[in-house]
């Protein structure tokens, strides 16, 4: 599929919309006129499929969801039929030696020239360990790595226990993770935005998404296993 021919109902004006796939929503009636004469339908217009599969009367064409299920339409089973259809397509393409796999190259950090502000703040994105909200904000928006944010405070005894533990774990994943230490007394607005209720606390982020919050001091293994699974 490379595109869709669109015709306006009022003016009959035609245009082509480039698209690699089509999700055909039918509402409460099988609006399947698009398929008449091409795929076998029942008397009500629903697509006929082989029982227990997504296979239609045309080889390599599979149906999913409401358009092939008039008994359970709009039910949660529609999502399951979508999975069946997707897997059927994959197996069909594999059997015909038509399946192509595309592997996304690993994301690399873009090496940018340091700005004047970076120099003032002592920030370098290629380094693994950082401190302060400036580094946190820069890494949050610019780094593809997993980011580990350690929230501490000067009077926190457990923080002094956790720092060397976490630092050693981070050393094991030098180019896969960033560690940012935030002193909540110096950057209280950051702690408030992150809803940090006490220290020590560790939050993990990747691609601007918060993955996990770990409060208190945990075994080194717990941090290591999470980083390994999400790096």
Question: Would you kindly provide a brief summary of this structure?
Answer:
Belongs to the class-II pyridine nucleotide-disulfide oxidoreductase family. The protein has 231 residues and is α/β, with parallel strands linked by helices.
Q: Oligomer, anyone?
A: single chain
Number of helices: 6
Low-confidence stretches: none
Structural class: alpha/beta
Portion in helices: 25-40%
Strand content: 15-25%
Provide the number of structural domains: 2
- Integer-rounded radius of gyration: 27 Å
The CATH homologous superfamily of the largest domain is called Glutaredoxin
Q: Mean of residue pLDDT?
A: 83
Shape: elongated
Order of helices and strands: EEHHEHEHEHEEH
Report the CATH architecture of the largest domain. 3-Layer(aba) Sandwich
Query: How many β strands by DSSP?
Result: 7
Largest sheet: 5 strands, mixed
CATH topology of the largest domain: Glutaredoxin
Strand order of the largest sheet: 3-5-4-6-7
Protein name: Putative ovule protein
InterPro entries: FAD/NAD-bd_sf (IPR036188), FAD/NAD-binding_dom (IPR023753), Ferredoxin-NADP_redctase_2 (IPR050097), Thioredoxin-like_sf (IPR036249), Thioredoxin_domain (IPR013766)
Domain Thioredoxin: 116-231
Family: Belongs to the class-II pyridine nucleotide-disulfide oxidoreductase family.
Describe the structure.
- Helix content is 29%, strand content 17%.
- The chain is an alpha/beta fold and 231 residues long.
- The radius of gyration is 27 Å and the shape is elongated.
- Helix 4 (157-172) links the parallel strand 4 and strand 5 (177-183).
- Residues 116-231 form the Thioredoxin domain.
- InterPro entries: FAD/NAD-bd_sf (IPR036188), FAD/NAD-binding_dom (IPR023753), Ferredoxin-NADP_redctase_2 (IPR050097), Thioredoxin-like_sf (IPR036249), Thioredoxin_domain (IPR013766).
- Belongs to the class-II pyridine nucleotide-disulfide oxidoreductase family.
- Keywords: Flavoprotein, Oxidoreductase.
């Amino acid at each position: 599929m490379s595109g869709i021919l669109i015709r306006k109902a009022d003016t009959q004006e035609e245009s082509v919309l480039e698209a690699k796939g089509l999700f055909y929503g039918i509402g409460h009636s099988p609006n399947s006129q698009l398929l008449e004469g091409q795929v076998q339908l029942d008397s009500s217009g629903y697509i006929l499929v082989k029982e227990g599969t997504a296979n239609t009367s045309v080889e390599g064409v599979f149906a999913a969801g409401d358009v092939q299920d008039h008994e359970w339409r709009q039910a949660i089973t529609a999502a399951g039929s979508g999975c069946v259809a997707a897997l059927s397509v994959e197996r069909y393409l594999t059997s015909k030696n038509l399946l192509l796999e595309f592997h996304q190259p690993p994301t690399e950090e873009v090496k940018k020239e340091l700005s004047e502000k970076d120099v003032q703040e002592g920030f370098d994105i290629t380094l693994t360990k950082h401190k302060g909200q400036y580094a946190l904000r820069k890494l949050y928006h610019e780094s593809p790595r997993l980011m580990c944010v350690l929230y501490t405070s000067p009077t926190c005894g457990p923080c002094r226990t956790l720092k060397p533990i976490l630092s050693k774990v981070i050393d094991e994943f030098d180019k896969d993770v960033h560690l940012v230490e935030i002193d909540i007394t110096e950057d209280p607005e950051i702690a408030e935005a992150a809803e940090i209720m006490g220290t020590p606390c560790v939050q993990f982020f990747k691609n601007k998404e918060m993955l996990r919050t770990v409060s208190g001091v945990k075994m080194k293994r717990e941090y290591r296993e999470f980083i390994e699974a999400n790096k």
